[in-house]
Every structure is written in structure tokens, then in C-alpha cells.
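## retry 2 of 3
previous attempt timed out at serialization; input unchanged, resubmitting
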Amino acid sequence: MEFTQVSNLNFNISRVTLGTWAIGGWMWGGSDDQLAVDTVIEALQKGVTTIDTAPVYGFGKSEELVGEAVQEFGNRDEIQLATKFGLEWDDEGNIQRNTSRDRILKEVDDSLRRLQTDYIDIYQVHWPDLNTDFAETAETLQELLDRGKIKAIGVSNFSPDQMDEFQKTAPIHVCQPPYNLFERGIETDVIPYCKENNITLLTYGALCRGMLSGKMNKDRTFNKGDLRRNADPKFQGETFVKHLAAVEKLKEYAGDNFNQKVIHLAVRWILDKGVDSAIWGARKPEQVTFENVFGWELNDQQVREIEQIVEEMVEEPVSPAFMAPPE
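## retry succeeded, writing output
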């Protein structure tokens, strides 16, 4: 495992972070609780120290399972828990953004309870809330930081302009945008901004909802409630076929040049593009195979060759904008 320091703070995170959206079941067609706990423990046993979750992932379910797994594993002071806030839901599962002070103070206590801990290492605004003054959100997070309830302030899905506005009131230590071989929109703005401002990049979607796992084919079907069944454009019709063809080419490149699988090539590419930590989503222990990401690197020419494969086979990239909750 490789590690990196969080901005100018005195703690590190692992360069692969376990993503736990899927173990909450919501938008992934369900999940098995015991397998979920086993998955978190498997990741910790294999050297991951950082776990990313959110209240909305299963409406509290993911956080509860992460908390259960960390309690069972122990060594809380050696684990970094990253969670989020700012998406509230009703009894029917309708989502809306809310990053007001009252909402934050409620959510942080709810998350601490579910995670069975007395502090959160990285607390992140899940999506920018344009109906709440950024200063109110930032001021509240600074207060939580000063009180020791959180150790770092993060934002997710923010533009550079939004981060600028936020930082008029409080610092940003971590930024969590989407990033993978098929979703590279942040390269022209968010990545340079974070580098210039010493903001740690913790990117999500490393495997592009499993597309880059190397295990899918055009006949793959998805359970009811799985966002890939009808919400994610990459998994529909000819677009799905084109992306799978690109994965096959990447699979050949990974095997011929590094004797590695495409899943490990995809994550190594993210890390060698300057990202501090890539989120690897999993909901079964056998999906935790990130150890082969380490011990080798890509040079500039290899990075470019990998990108050319994707650019030639997927002519019109599809953004992950479909995942954004209503504004």
C-alpha cells in the first residue's frame, strides 16, 4: 500500500480508499449485510486504512455497516473514516440538497452514532447546495473542526469557482470529484486547482461502476434498482458495447505490458495522473484485489498510450452528470 498526507494536516490516507456506496444497496440493486461487513474487514486486512461512505448510501445503512466492521476490526485510530452530508431524504426516498447549519449539526451526530465513533476524519459536502450560502456551510464545518468532531474539511462535486467561494470562510483539505479513464472532465479545471491550492484529491468512480473491472460483457443484466440498468448512459445499447470494446483493448495492453489485469491498470493510471487516493468500490470480499495496483508505475508514454486507446474507441465521452441529485 502507498500512503499520502492530507493537505497540510498531520495524518495520512491510503492511496486506495474503499468505497461503500454499493454496500448500502441503494441504487445498486440491494446488498448483503454480512458480505458488506466482511468486505470492509477484508480491505482493512489488506492494507487499506481509508473508508469512504455517506448517509444517503442506503439511507444510513452503509454508515452502519462500516461502523460495525470497524468495531469488529479494531484499531480505530489507524483508520480514516470519510463521510459526507448535505443530502436529505423523505420516507419515499426523494432526495434534496441541504447544507444549512441546522442540517449539518444534525447529520454529523447521526453519522457519528452510525459509525460508532466520536470523530470523523474527513467530513465532506456531498453536493454543492445553491440554496444555502457557502459561508454558512463553511463556518459550521470550521466550528466542527475546531471542536475536534472532524479532522479535515472536504467537498465533493464542487467546481473551482465554488471552492474559491467556500474558501473565503474555511479551508478545503480534500476534494472528491469523479475520475476514471472514461470520465476525465476534471483534468482541465479541478485537478489543476487542487494542485495549486494544496487540496488532497480523493476521486470516486475509479472503476466506472464496474465497467473497468474487466468482468463485464454485452449480455450483462442488472437488478431492479441498480442505476446501471437504466440511469447510467454508459451501460445502455451501443454506448455499452463501445465501452466494453475499449475495456478489451485496455485488457490486452495491461497483460502485454505489465502482466496485470485491466482493473489494476485503470487505478494505477489514476494514481500516476497525480491523484492522491482513488476510491475502489466493492460489496463482496472477492472484489477487494487492489494489492496489484502497487509495486509498479506508468511512465508518461504509457499513460498517453492508454489514453489513446480510450479516445480512439470512445469518440464521445459521456459525463457522470446523471448522478447529480436535484438542485
